[in-house]
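hey team, just a heads up i'm posting the complex here instead of the shared drive bc the drive is being weird again. everything in one block, sequence lines first with there labels, then the predicted structure for the whole assembly after. its two chains so it's a bit long, scroll down
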Amino acid sequence: MTCNEFEELGLGAERDASLSDTQRAAAAAHAASCSRCEALRDSWEATRLALRSLAQATGTLAAPTRVEMRLRQQFRTQYHTPRARRMALAAAWGLAAGAVLVGAVSWVRWHNHQQKNIALTPNTLASSQASPDENAGDAQTLVADNELSNFTLLPGVLPAETDGSAILIVRMQRGALGALGLPVNEDRAAEWIQVDLLVGSDGLPQAVRLPE
Amino acid sequence: MLLGRAGKGDEEAFTLLYRRHQAALYRLALRMSGNAWAAEEIVQDVFMTLMRDPKKYDPARGTLGGFLYGVTRNRVLKHLERSPHREVPLEEKNENGTGPGIVLVDATTPAIQAEKRERIEQVWAAVLDLPSEFREAVVLCELEERSYEEAAQMIGCPIGTIRSRLHRGRALLMARLEILRDSPRPCRRRPAWRSEALLLDEGSGK
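-- predicted structure starts here --
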């Protein structure tokens, strides 16, 4: 073994598992016969001891705990914040859906109520006059009973038998009474009132009653 | 397994994973950079990478420790490219301020302790003076006491390259320490080129 080979292979022969026993023996023999390489080996051993001291001195070091704290904080931010956001988003969507549902139900109820009111307006009076049979079953139509008091006969209508007559409760503007031949106070013509109409079997109104 | 749990948001699993690997990675970063702050940042960065994209680790290609070591090594080399010469913060206190960064376990008297500390500082300064590829080989094989095969596998090079780098690294290290031994003042780090120049001045062997 030459000095150059010793420098490359011999100094680390103990740690180099790829060397054969023959190479190790040759390195040891060269160090024993060459004073320079022996001095080099001694120098390296001293350096190696110093390196071991350094390894020992730094062998127990570890990252400060603040690194772990930072990482855990970051971990929470990465994994928990999106989950909380997703939950908040789901809750917001749930609330929005609930609000829409409540609004829809409210609108339907309001719409139904409005339609009932429209059915009781004067416009429906004409339709009820045209086809009284259609409204015969309406909840607002009451079969005439014996309580026919306080009805005022409409102009031009002769008193007749009330059999087959019906009382129709309608909501109308006061001015519409003029169409029935009744006098109307012009100042209150736009006022909405509820009247009872006595409708004959022919479908024509015969008398009217203004509830107090 | 821990990584899988951590990937699903299990903080305890991630913490266990961190505690299992952090010390070795920190020591490697510290021994290579000589800078506690840099080592701290590097370790944090490595685990951030693992946290953000755990799928980067492929179990078929090796152990998680090996993967983390590879990421740490890349970060260290990038750090050394950015700031190749930094002072060794040997006097830095621990996080709680109770002791020095370097722990001397067998120093009996203050005088011996001071002498030993100075010696260690010199060695570390000499190691940090080495070019990064030689330094890496020395750190792995001499400080971490890994076999040549392990070092070659970690660095990703043939064993012959490790042997060659160690040979050069040893020569530079011995030359540097010889100079420091003769110097009456405590060690100061010098640019890496100077060690090589000193070695060349000494001449070759037989």
